[in-house]
Amino acid sequence: MAEPEATDARLAQLEADNARLRRLLDETGTPDGLRHGLRDTLAMLRAVLRLSAETAETVDGYATHLEGRLDAIARVRVAADTFGEVSLHTLISDELMVHLIREGEHATLEGPSVRLRPKAAQLMALAVHELCSNAVEHGAFGLSKGGVDVTWAVAGDGTSAPGDLTLVWKETGGTGVTPPSRRGFGMQVLTEMLSYELRATVALAFVPDGLRCTVDCPLIPRIGRLVEDERADEGAEPP
């Protein structure tokens, strides 16, 4: 990546800003729950900034992609601060809309009402953001007939006992999609961060008309839960 000195300076500045914010949180008597959530977010921002710098090929590419990644995290953080949890359906549809992909036109979304805890939601939003960006730059969204079907299901009832959440991202209408020649940021999010943080297993298939991505993770309390009526549950406090 070009201009490593500038990147190192940005990283050093972010580390200093984060240290000052952590001290401020400790000194002002911030509630434990809010402090813990902000610490998680700060840790994720540091990881995203550093990994973005390590995988970017140009400074312009670094800046452009970093902005989108930070925006994805910020949108979920706002929702989590408001409701305590984040709707999986809303998370995906919002990210698609940022890329001008409208549900019902070039995208279909189908699955039960699942609400994710803040940290899990931020990771999932980052993964969906990378899938969307890849589809715009290299896959189905770059073509007029391209689209995506996103489905998810929960094994078991997901309420009285933990089940497994399975999410499938299936692009259609692409042409000549092939595996990437290098492991960029998106691949590392999907194959490493989700595995480490959510105990997820991820399967990727680069078929000619688009990418297929399947994410399986346990729907345990620290990750999320299945709800009977998402609209009725929107303002409820998490268990």
In summary, what is this structure?
By secondary structure, the chain is of the alpha+beta class. The chain has helices at 4-27, 32-55, 59-83, 88-98, 118-137, 185-198, 230-233; strands at residues 86-87, 107-110, 114-116, 147-154, 163-172, 201-207, 210-219, 224-226. The strands form 2 sheets. It has a 5-stranded mixed sheet, covered by helices on one side. A 3-stranded antiparallel sheet has the order 1-3-8.
Notes on the structure:
This protein is α+β, with helices and mostly antiparallel strands. The chain has one domain (36-226): Histidine kinase-like ATPase, C-terminal domain (Heat Shock Protein 90, 2-Layer Sandwich), CATH 3.30.565. The protein contains 7 helices and 8 strands. The strands form 2 sheets. Strands 2-4-5-7-6 form a 5-stranded mixed sheet, with helices on one face. A 3-stranded antiparallel sheet has the order 1-3-8. Strand 6 and strand 7 form a beta hairpin. The radius of gyration is 18 Å and the shape is globular. 33% of the residues are buried. Residues 34-113 form the Signal transduction histidine kinase HWE region domain. Keywords: ATP-binding, Kinase, Nucleotide-binding, Phosphoprotein, Transferase. Its EC number is 2.7.13.3.
Features:
Heat Shock Protein 90; three-stranded antiparallel beta sheet; 239 residues; ATP-binding; five-stranded mixed beta sheet; nucleotide-binding; globular; alpha+beta
